[in-house]
């Protein structure tokens, strides 16, 4: 069927023009685009401020926890230096959480030391026969036993691991003259610490080694500490011979003795 020219003309006039999309309309207005970018920028800034605030809050809480942990450590540390070994044993038996608090604070203190005395002792043992039997007096987390091939008897006031024997270090279950190396790494604490050294003498074989690592400030006569030579002489009077002294570290000293052959 053929349309009349007039109908064709009318239909052409009724065909709608294509509308611009909203996106095109929006992008054609620079002011609207700038406002949107400003809002996005503000949102990013706000999110960054919230993130910074959360980070600052977290850092503050960590700092407060460290102070609290340090306070617990100093309090318990003072207690251990001013009581006997048996009193310290009962102290931790009454509240086992105190032992964990003490060692948490201890680890925090040690993290600031440039070198750990236990690592030097580990190296010393690795340079010797793995058949040597070792007694670690005041072992803490038994790090020595976990890092050498030697058989290590680990003693402390509380046992948080099956390999650790909880006891008063002046009275261990070891047989007399059964040990090749006795170690005291920052553990000569308590008013009766000479009894610990006597116990080490009892369990050591003739010519057995006694290794002592202690905080250097304890052996500074200028600040009320013991004279290291006097201390060494007192240990020799228990039946030991002084082999060497290492004062090279600014935080601690190391003393090496051997049990005299009777």
TrEMBL record:
GO MF terms, alphabetically ordered: methyltransferase activity
GO BP terms: namely: chromatin organization; methylation; rRNA processing
SUPFAM superfamilies assigned: S-adenosyl-L-methionine-dependent methyltransferases
The cellular location(s) given in this protein's UniProt record come to: Nucleus, Nucleolus
This protein's source sits in the domain of life called Eukaryota
Where is this chain compositionally biased, Basic residues type? 11-23
The biased composition feature labelled Basic and acidic residues covers 1-10, 31-45
> Record's GO cellular component, any one?
nucleolus
- For the keyword Cytoplasm, the answer is no
User: Recorded E.C. number(s)?
Assistant: 2.1.1.-
Q: Enumerate the UniProt keywords alphabetically.
A: Chromatin regulator, Methyltransferase, Nucleus, Repressor, rRNA processing, S-adenosyl-L-methionine, Transcription, Transcription regulation, Transferase
Chain residue ranges for the region called Disordered: 1-56
Q: Which InterPro entries match?
A: RRP8 (IPR007823), RRP8_N (IPR042036), SAM-dependent_MTases_sf (IPR029063)
Q: Which family does it belong to?
A: Belongs to the methyltransferase superfamily. RRP8 family.
Q: What does this protein do?
A: Probable methyltransferase required to silence rDNA.
Q: What is this protein called?
A: Ribosomal RNA-processing protein 8
Organism listed in the record: Actinidia rufa
């Amino acid at each position: 069927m053929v349309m009349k020219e007039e109908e064709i003309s009318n239909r052409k006039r009724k065909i709608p023009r294509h509308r611009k999309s909203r996106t095109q309309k929006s992008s054609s207005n620079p002011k609207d685009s700038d406002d949107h970018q400003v809002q996005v920028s503000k949102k990013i800034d706000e999110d960054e401020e919230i993130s910074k605030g959360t980070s600052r809050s977290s850092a503050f809480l960590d700092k407060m926890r460290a102070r609290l942990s340090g306070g617990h450590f100093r309090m318990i540390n003072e207690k251990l230096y001013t009581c006997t070994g048996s009193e310290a044993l009962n102290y931790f038996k009454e509240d086992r959480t105190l032992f964990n608090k003490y060692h948490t604070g201890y680890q925090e203190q040690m993290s600031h030391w440039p070198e750990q005395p236990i690592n030097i002792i580990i190296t010393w043992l690795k340079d010797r026969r793995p058949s040597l039997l070792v007694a670690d007096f005041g072992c803490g987390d038994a790090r020595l036993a976990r890092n050498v091939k030697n058989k290590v008897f680990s003693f402390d006031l509380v046992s948080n691991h099956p390999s650790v024997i909880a006891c008063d270090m002046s009275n261990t279950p070891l047989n007399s003259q059964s040990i090749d190396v006795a170690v005291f790494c920052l553990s000569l604490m308590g008013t009766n610490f000479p009894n610990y050294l006597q116990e080490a003498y009892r369990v050591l074989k003739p010519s057995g080694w006694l290794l002592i690592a202690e905080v250097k400030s304890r052996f500074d006569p200028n600040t009320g500490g013991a004279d290291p030579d006097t201390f060494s002489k007192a240990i020799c009077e228990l039946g030991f011979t002084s082999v060497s002294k290492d004062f090279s570290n600014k935080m601690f000293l190391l003393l090496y003795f051997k049990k005299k052959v009777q």
